[in-house]
Amino acid sequence: MLDGSQVVARHDRAAGKYAEILVLDHYLEVLRRKPGGLPGAAALAQARAAGVVTAARQQYRDAARRRHGDAAGTRALIEVLLARRTLPAAALQAAMTTAIALACWMPRPCSSTPAARPPAGRAGHPARRAGPLRPPGPRPGRP
User: Fold this and answer.
1) Which residue pairs from 59-65 have beta carbons closer than 8 angstroms and sit at least 24 positions apart in sequence?
2) I need a labelling partner for 108 at 20 to 30 A (CA). Which of 24, 100, 135, 138 fits?
C-alpha cells in the first residue's frame, strides 16, 4: 500500500485458491485480552513457520507459564511480541535472556513486591470511572 510514493504497508500475496496469510501482529491486541486463543491460532502457526516466534521466545513463554499459569505466561509473550513494534530485536533477545536467568517473567519491572494493578474503569482507564453512564434522573418511560 502506498501513500504517494511512500510504502505504508506491505503484505505477502496469497497464492492459490483459499490460501490465507495471517499476520500475528494484527491479532496481538485481541490476544492480550483473550490469551487462551493464542495456542491454537492459525496466525501463531504461520508466525512460527516464518520465524517470528523464535525458540527463545517460546522458552520465555514456557518459563512464564510454569511460573504464573497459562494466561499470564501467554500474556507475557504477547507483551514481548508487541514490544517488537518499537524495540530492536537484539534488545528484546537480551531482555528475554535476562528475564529467564532472573526468573522475572512479567513485562513490567521486576520487584520483590507485586505491582499494584490499576482499577479498570470504562475503556480501562481509571480516570474514566467517574460519572454515570446516563445523566441522573428518571429514564424516559419510567417513573
Assistant:
1) 59/96, 59/100, 60/96, 60/99, 60/100, 60/105, 63/100, 63/103, 63/105, 64/105, 64/106
2) 24
